[in-house]
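Quick one:
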Amino acid sequence: MLAPLPQHSPPGVDVKTKRAFNLRVLLLLSTGHLVTDIYQGALPGLLPLLKDKLDLTYAAAGTILLASNLTSSVVQPLFGFLSDKREKPLLLPVGCLFAGLGFSLLSLPGSYGAVLCLVALSGLGVASYHPEGYKTASYFTGTRPAAGMSLFSVGGNLGFAVGPALCLWLVSRWGLSALPAMAIPSLLFVALIGWEWRRLAAHRGPKEVAEAPGAKLPPGTRPALALLIATVVMRSWTHIGLMTYIPFHIIDHLQGDPVRAGQLVSALLLGGVVGTLGGSPLADRWGHRRYLLLSLGATSVLFPLVLVARGPAAFLVLGTFGAVLISTFTVTIVMAQRLLPDNLGVASGLMVGFAIGTGGLGVTLLGAIADRFGVPAALNAIGALPPLGLLFSALMRYPAGQSAAVEVPPAG
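Output:
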């Protein structure tokens, strides 16, 4: 029987009582994050093949992604709430396993409804892993919250990047019937975390004394959190929209190679890996909100290049765009955790789940635009989203109740 994981800090505990930076624990959790997000990242690349197999419209194909986002992202705050109420360590291996099994079986059914059910199963696996993973990781980041959390987050970014290329390489080489082989990474992680469980459980800090949580949130917390969520929705809509419609643009509109489409999406996501690792230390140094404004301003300027770049330049432009856009992924999680220090699971679920998933809902709207006006029109519509995110973040007062220009200085 698996031993319990280290107990998280009780509500209201001061951030100074967190455990020291622990690389081994963060890398283990990051590995599970990588594997889990392989399946979430691979689904957009697989959509054109499922669309052809089931003879779907763009809107119906977008609904598959909608089902994924509803189950993998929007419901994450619920799992975060459950995680805050009571320790649920088994969500880590079980969530990863369900994510892999649901996705890897998508080539078997011949009905649209069965595909939606498998996507939902995979999505629930993704949703159950993230809040518990982010909450656990947050207690091993020491005095470098954004930089430490980036080690956990980068696993997910890398999984998103590897997923499309790995999936499309597999099915291009051996056919759609080979998709069940995609379950192998999730099975390997379950074995790995089982092997390391005792070592993970042994990393306990001294018992911490928590103050009673306040009856009310500090003034300005709710408006600040609402604007932060709106900002992440715009960033997510941009991110998932490009992931989804770059393959459609290459495969359906330009009649190009599916493998090249997967490579372009992977370039976008690999850029996000670099951005997550490079941007988080800068955000700790410069201030989280200030760095968020810089990132959204830069992506607003860079987006037109995404539409016109061709050949090798397309890989460079998409990689750069992904690095700048996704470099704030960890930053916004840390910002939410500072706004809700007594509910770290809910804060993580809101940022990684609800906000990102709600942004993904916009892909269905982009599908309606593509059906009526064509895929290029859907891509063009994405360009309005980074400026909207910039506006929301500019209006946000962070920390809550203080001037928006004031930042809490980084520890250390």
